[in-house]
Records
---
Amino acid sequence: MVSYVVRNVELSTEEILKDYLPSDETITKYAPRIDTMYVETKWNLTDEEKVEKGKSQATVIATQTKKMCKVYHPTLEGGYYTDIADSTPYTVDYNSLLMDEGGNFLLSAPELNEDKTKKFSYWEVYKVNANGEHTELVTKCYERNFGLRIMSDYYIEPVYGKEVPSLTANINVPVLNREIYGDSISATDKLYADLLTAFTSTAIPTFKENTTDLKVECGVFVVRNNTSTLSVDDRNTLVNAAISNSKDTTSDILTNYKMTPEVETRVKSQLEELALNSSVKNNTNNTYSIGSDDYRVTKFVFDNNSLTNKNRIDKVLRYTNNTANQNYIFTVRICSNQGFSRYS
């Protein structure tokens, strides 16, 4: 059960005349928006059992529903898996594998394309809009059995006849979650950035049982711009949009803070040096002046014993939800010895 206490907040004259009872509008104003990884959390003010009002305070209990995701894919005569009925779209739990109750993969691409001329290369994974139409490419899955965890509504399709690199590094678009507890006077407020990463190697059967002469190190870099922070106007726009549940303008606003191509190249070069520098250990922070801005780079190194060619590694970053962190622009890059992938 998730609950929150709203107390010692400013009340209107009407609320004061009604024996200092906070209105629904006041409760909504001060009760925080909570977003957890697996459930949708909403304050329930219409159910008497979910809200208790007293003098100058109110306790609210959240209604929580499990998050679900849809997976769309192109149709194929006979289905992608012969012994399981095909379904478009599949509806699955958030952060789950696309498998049936018996542990069988629901989607498995044929080894060859329809005219038997090209071999399977990978699945392409796209974001989808409200109509199920695919938009931007999110990641790739290099296994014929589609084995990536589902973190959003996706459109996936198999690709044939393309070259597959010997080592790949992929990352989902970071998922932000919020945890808050206490009350409106002394709340503890944390944000979690969930980075679901994947590494694939055709040269190494499995990272934790590497018997080759190749030494592979995998991890992520978090790059924070210490100079160009979110403007007051842009921050207010994002806050007001969140409060009113209006159109999400985050992507449009962050476009104005993207690195220039020249800075992007220099940052990538710096990260490549850090990736190969074994003296820079896990959780190490370094600051660099690139262009007109200063960047703080944090290196997170994964334990190879937790890496296989089929699983995904979950890296969760925790931040205090204060004004300073809300104004920083962060970029996340997943890395291996041979490749980079980028998300902001």
Note: The first helix runs from residue 13 to 17.
---
Amino acid sequence: MATSAIGINAIAADSDNEIVYSYADENNNIINITQSDLDAEHWNKEALGDTAPAIYENFPMNMTGYSNDVAELYLDFEYMKNLKDMDSVHLEITKLSDDSLVYDEDLQQESFYSPQIFAGESYKVTLTETVDGNSKSYSKGVTANESEIDMPEYVTNPDTDDESIIMVGDIEDLKSGKISTGNSISVDTNVAQYAHIKANEFKEYYSNLPSNKVYRIYTISNGDVYSGYMSTEDDIKFYDLTIDSCDWDSFYSPTLLSIPSYTTTDIKNNAVDARYTEYCYKLSETSNNSKCKIFKVAMPDSFLNEKIRLFFE
């Protein structure tokens, strides 16, 4: 079966031999999938929806990032096969900075959240299926980020006449009203409340906020909801908590670029961008034996257009 697909469309099926999915692979060959094909590989059509299983062959889980009102980030998992068909399905999440296990359990349900993960950290997620006594493992690499986001003009450059409402909540206050119910986390508004600030008063409002604090921010502009977090560290910054993921084999694959007259020592001494957004990491030693893992490095001002990825052993 093809491992990548374009033009995926779902087709209603009334019997095991009728086509459920039909799509074109990377060579434009038409691939048809029947209900019998799905059953043979234990795929859960309800979980797949309109997406053919080819998308999940290398990692049979849908994995996204979920952040809540109190600036906590989790991996949101949905297993795409029938759990009841398996002898067991085991999930392991390892934090790469110290090789600690964040999660190490057998799946008990198809949909669930991981324990909290943290911006600036990278993780290896390994899923192991055992069916009829045979085991198969799949792995992905995940990086958690603070990603800068856009806000309406009246937030970043408010006009004196604009009275649009901006909702702001102190993360520490919101945490005091946090309620956990099963897989869901909400905020009790009787305990923790959002301030409602008019846009023309917002600049003065945030200029009086204490430094090194994080706030939840919401606003609505032309029917669109804008939400994220606002940091008062150094200068004001608007961001969201997000993840990037890729196949494990690509996660540690270096891309070599030629930079004339620059040695690795020069790079280590002159890498200046330590922000975790856009994969720009300051190059640094990550273990006692001076081994470095892969980082993308933002070069000094004279090399701002050159971003490199290196692998040191």
Note: DSSP finds seven helices and 19 strands in the chain.
---
Amino acid sequence: MYISEIAWRPQNPVLPKILILGESHYDEDIPQGEENKHITREVVEYMLDEAPEWKTFFYNIAASFGYRKDKEGVRDFYNKVYFANYVEESCGKGSDNQAANFIWGKGKTKGRRDYYNKAVFEICNEENISIICAFSKITYNALPQIDTELREEVTNDPISSNYTVGKTNYKKGVSFDREIQLKKDLTLYGFNHASRSGYKKAYEFISKEFEYHDILNKSV
């Protein structure tokens, strides 16, 4: 599916592999609802090379794992993790963002949530990803919280933190809509949108939850 085709793949992925999942792209030159011409990996490459104004989202995510908010620190982080956006179409920004409508639908227009979820789990299977960190409440809440046929296989652990939304555990073999089965256990973490301030609160949680994972930068 499309997410797998455009996702950013790191040069030196840490193990267990981590997918950072954003919400959506926006581009003033692309009408809402059209697939974004600037594929995700090109966006990440441009962000790493040029440090554009919209870099805050990417820099705050890196800082949430203990990396410096500069080119060197951010480049180090994104060379270890995968990155993709949940919604593939251009969605607009701010109050004009239509991501939720594309996911859940609006009026007589059906949402694409099932399609997006299948695409996310497909890339997890392809790349043997064990952990998803979704830096968007909308994205986290759109991903499956429970499998209607295998209720005992999916658990949700609410987390009371100022910045963390929750944690969902999926077991190997869980089949979403009976079309894609997970090849390995998968843990999903949900955080507030990373463009907002508060990454220090996220770091407080991540520094404990990922204490023994190589992604955590303990040098700063």
Note: The CA atoms of residues 36 and 90 lie 5 Å apart.
